[in-house]
Every structure is written in C-alpha cells, then in structure tokens.
Predict the 3D structure of the following.
Amino acid sequence: MSIPTIAEAAALIAARKLSPVELTKACLDRVHALDNTLHAFVLPTEERALAEARAAEADIMRDGPRGPMHGIPIGLKDIVDTKGIATTCQSKILQDNIPDADAACAEKLAQAGTIMMGKLTTHEFADGGPSFDLPAPPSRNPWNPEHFTAGSSSGTGAAVAAGMILCGIGTDTGGSIRGPAALCGIAGLKPTYGLVSRAGVAPAAYSLDHIGPMAWTAEDCAIMLQVLAGHDPRDPHSANRPVPNYTAQLGAGVKGMRIGVIRHFHETDHKVAEATQAGIDNAMAVFRDLGAEVVDVTLAPLQDWHACGSLISITERAAAYNEWARTRLGDFSERVQRRLMLGALVSGIDYVHAVQRRRELRDELRAAMRTLDIVVTAGAPGEAPKMDGVPRWDSFAAPSFTMPFNVTGYPAMCVCSGFGPAGLPVSVQLVGKPFQEATVLRMADAFEKATTYKGSRPAMVAA
C-alpha cells in the first residue's frame, strides 16, 4: 500500500474504500521493515494498535467516522503520559514509570478515534541531543540513516517521514517540532503558546514549551490541530478562547497576503547553505506568483533572540529537574548532566534580565508584523548533519532559527522547500501572529500544493 495522507485516508475510510485495519497493518509492516534501522519507536504497541483498528472499523461500519482522524495510525512522543503504558522520557530515571492517566493530548486523540502505534523516541527529557548512553538508541533520518533527525521530537519526525505513522505528537521548547520537520522533510507546526494543553507532558522550560502536530503535509497538521486545540484548566497556561476551523481556509489561495522575509537572519546573522537559501528564494517566488506581496523585515540580530531564549530555557530546565539533578545526577546522560549543571549556575539577575529582554523582543516582532500576515526565515541551516557530526553543545554552537518564536510564543511551522546536494530535505519556516494558525496553515498548504516536494518519500521507504 502506498502511504496516504490523513486527508486522503480519511476520505477513503469515510467512503468505505479503506479499512483502518488494512491501513494499520500497512504501517506496522513498515515498522517491522525499517525500525531496526531508524529507531523511531522506543515502545511499539502493536497489539493495542490492531485492537483499536478493529474497533474503529466496526464503529465506522456501523455509524460512520467520528471525524477525519478516526482510524488514523499515530504515535506519541515518549514524554507524553499514556495510561498503563510506559512513559520513560528516554531516561534511566523513569524506566519503570507507568502513568495512571493519559496526557490531555493523548486523551483528545484517543477520543477522535486514532490508532496508537506506540511511543516515539526523544532526547532525554526532550533535551540534550543524540545520546548513545541512554536506554534506547537515538533515531536516524529515513532519507539517510547515517544522518541526524534533529530533536527532540526525533522519533516523530522519522516515523512520519518513513510512513510508519500518518502523524504524531511533537513538543517544542526551542525548535523540537520544527527541527525534525525540517531535517526529515515533513510538516511540523508549533502552535501559539497556550493553544494546546501540556497537561500530562513532561516539562522542559515551562514558559517556552509548546505541543503540536507533525505530519506529512500542512493540511494534515490542520486536521490534527483541530483535535488538539482548546482550553484545559489542568494547564495553568492554557488559553481560554474559541477554536476556529483550521481547515476552512485551505485552498483559499494567498492573493493579497503580505509576507515579510527576515532576510538578515539567514543571509547574515547565520548564513545558510546554498540549497536552503535557494529553497527560501523559490518559496517567495511561488508566493509572488500566487499573488502575495513579499517585503523585507528587519529585527534584532538572530544572536540576541537565541541568547535570550537559550538562557531562559537552560535555567527553567534546571529548575524542572533540580531534585533529580541533586540526588541522581549520574543517572542522566552526559549531555543532559552538563546542561543541568550549567543551568544551575545561572544567576537570578541574569534570568530576570533575559525575561525583560524577551518582552522587548516580543514587542519588536509585534510591531514588525502589524501590516503582515506572516514572516519567513529558514527552518534549519542546511541538510541534516551526520550523527557523529552533532556537537556536544549543539544548541549553543550557532544561533537557532526556531528559538525566536518560542521566545515570542508565536505560531510557526516548517515545511519542505527542496533538497540539498546530498539528497536530504531543506526547509522554510512560516510564522504567524498569535492564534492565527489558520493563516500559517493556509500559506503552507498553498506552497506545498504549488510545488512537487511532497511527491518524494525516502528511498528506503519506497524500497
């Protein structure tokens, strides 16, 4: 079976031309064939998946589908609590952790009728990088398994790109949805801060943490976000506002939309590879051809945004895991040990200055976007590096293109914008105003449907 998108599968399931059992078995076949190489799953749940697929098929045959996610195989990042199923956060510390309740996002997806294929590989507590001193090995990139997936939603990126699942949960504190989306050639959306509940998900940095969808296309992300979005009193930072129809604007075109390109981010502050630059330039040409207006935007240097977000992140992470850092530091991976110790050394004065600087930067972006619909920059500097080429302090080696939009909490997504000389994906990042996910998804969907990049899957998947 070829790999359908959620939208395609939902239409076939609704027309009773595709069985959820058949779809689930096809995904399991790819897990069996590929995951010994890719390590996207830390814990497959095959028996549960088949049972849920049979139940979904019976429900659909009797009453029709509950919605477009009914019968769709998904995966959950292994920092998302799952009732009765281990949630280890890829750490020795939580190897025996069996939650007694689902996280809010897992609960919502289950209520929508999805098929849970298993828990997906992450970096330890969503931090650190590709570590080889953890209970399970790091994920590898389906386009070339010698290469990195980015993180920390590494298993989700690999599993979606390889067709083992149609979509999955990612979390994003400094780029952990958009990084794997960029390097694995899929679509990944970090929603506005507070739009998707974080209840039942292990924290990283509480003021930067987001949860969002990762799927093959922007349209699929819109379908998934429709299920995930909404107020939850269990999350004190959850936004209490109406949830719009995220698919309603898809296909409406982009004529008359205004796009700002933060050109200095990727051309001067952190110059990207030629293929990434070509992908961004081509994306802007596509948008112009579709009727959008493209202008340049200047903000504070990328280094300022990265320094502000990184200091807040490393300090809040150290606070979140302070007790274990004091009593069980040796049970963390070497990468995370170093980050926790560094975070513990940040002074309260420095943290407060970073929070104050965040307010200034957020005001700057708000002013710059006053007359714009979205802004655009790179999602990642280039193609995925080799696994052994990721620096120990990877998050500090160069300023991040994704961190600015954790600092502001604005919605941002990465989509594939082409391929580099090694045949690996490159990406473009689209950023919207707060709670304007529908606009970001509309623009990303228009770009994907005007180009051919979504027609290519990794060679190992096709084989």
Q: What stands out?
A: The mean pLDDT is 97.
